[in-house]
Amino acid sequence: MDETTKQPKVFANKVIRQIITHMVAEDMIISPEDYMQIRVVFRNCGGSWDQLGLGDIHQVELLKTIITSWGQMPGRKKESDQLV
After folding, report:
1. What 3-state class would DSSP assign to 8?
2. What's the pLDDT at 17?
3. Per-residue DSSP letters for 9-74?
4. Dihedrals φ, ψ of 28, to 5°?
5. I need a labelling partner for 20 at 20 to 30 A (CA). Which of 2, 11, 49, 64 fits?
6. pLDDT at 83
């Protein structure tokens, strides 16, 4: 994989992780498939990572809505849930 393909995914995954940490739960478990699904839904809903990177508040709100919905889906696990 060349560097130009890897860069946008790294940016997107960092943004997704930050929003999940601040809005859903700090210790939410996120699989690589979860990142991919969130990125795909964001793009399919008209989201633009370029615009998000420039600070477009509409893109931020769209991503926050998608991530909040993802976090409320049944079956989401947190690291603290696994402690016995």
Report:
1. helix
2. 93
3. HHHHHHHHHHHIIIII-TTB---HHHHHHHHHHHHHTT--HHHHHTT-HHHHHHHHHHHHHHHTST
4. -65, 135
5. 2
6. 56
